[in-house]
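Notes to self after the Tuesday call (sharing in case useful).
The group wants a holo model before anyone commits to mutagenesis around the pocket. I volunteered. Ligand is NAP. Logging inputs and output together so the record is complete.
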Amino acid sequence: MSFRSVAIIGLGLLGGSTGLAVQAFLPDVQTTGWDADPATRARAATRGLVHTVCETAEDAVRDADLVILCVPVGAMGEAAAAIAPALRGDVVVSDVGSSKQFVARALAEALPGVAVIPAHPVAGTERSGPDAGFANLFQQRWCIITPPADADTRQVAALSRFWEALGAKVELMDAQHHDLVLAVTSHLPHLIAYTIVGTADDLEGVTQSEVIKYSAGGFRDFTRIAASDPTMWRDVFLSNKDAVLEMLQRFTEDLTALQRSIRVGDGQALFDQFARTRDIRRSIIEEGQDDARPDFGRSDHGRD
Ligand code: NAP
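Result:
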């Protein structure tokens, strides 16, 4: 089986990019879309993010055999409830949310009896809204699909082929494992970036203009991450609470160990740690998940 008509609910960065990617890489597939914000709907129509921008959520999904919810994680349940009455009997409902156990529960509750197969394209930028999307967002990025135990294997295979057609590499994973992995690779780094940028901003004795002027020394990269959408990230931390708190605890312990090495002058421990992390950076570049150039793709490649 393959999908012929895809409805996208939420036409921001992820929804817009999905709509543009379908048009670019699956030209025979029809796309419809809806967003709660009328201004976003108008902008989506002007940019042609989907073939048809509908006036209601129900109109958008009525003929779709695949519906992808591209709204903040905290809005998934509400978005699913809005489309429930108009779904086709053979529809597959998926999403792009950044945490998976919470979304799986919200969708199962709002859509009893519907085939729900959650997914998370690990691709994004710090930008949001209907002007942020681009067709190549998913190229060479991983899309993690977290099928429930009773999922129809043909539907899972069709969803995998869909994301592969948009340029992604697909991995199937248990939702709980996804949340743990993403807590360390994405959620914790965002929390650290939000903290560091906030700390610098609050520092007495260092002016804001100095923070901005001397930002090249590492701080600049944190500001890129800390510029990410506040609604999206509030929802990620609230919905993946347990895994994030567990990783935060581990991180705090490791930070305390580094703090001690600095205090007692244990240069070997610092050197060993920094050498280990350098190897991880090398592996990421070798895997094609980033580029050795310092400013790689900031404008046209996603990573989050
Ligand atoms: P975004 O650019 O802010 O787009 C989300 C859109 O959904 C906004 O236009 C929002 O409108 C709309 N919306 C909110 N509630 C809605 C509802 N109930 N029904 C219909 N539309 C609704 O955010 P995004 O970055 O695309 O993120 C969307 C999802 O992708 C999130 O679940 C996020 O976790 C996931 N994700 C994001 C990234 C990333 O890097 N950004 C990467 C991977 C996955 P308003 O602005 O008016 O609220």
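Two things stood out.
Residues 177-289 form a domain with the 6-phosphogluconate dehydrogenase C-terminal fold fold (CATH 1.10.3660.10).
The chain has a mean pLDDT of 93.
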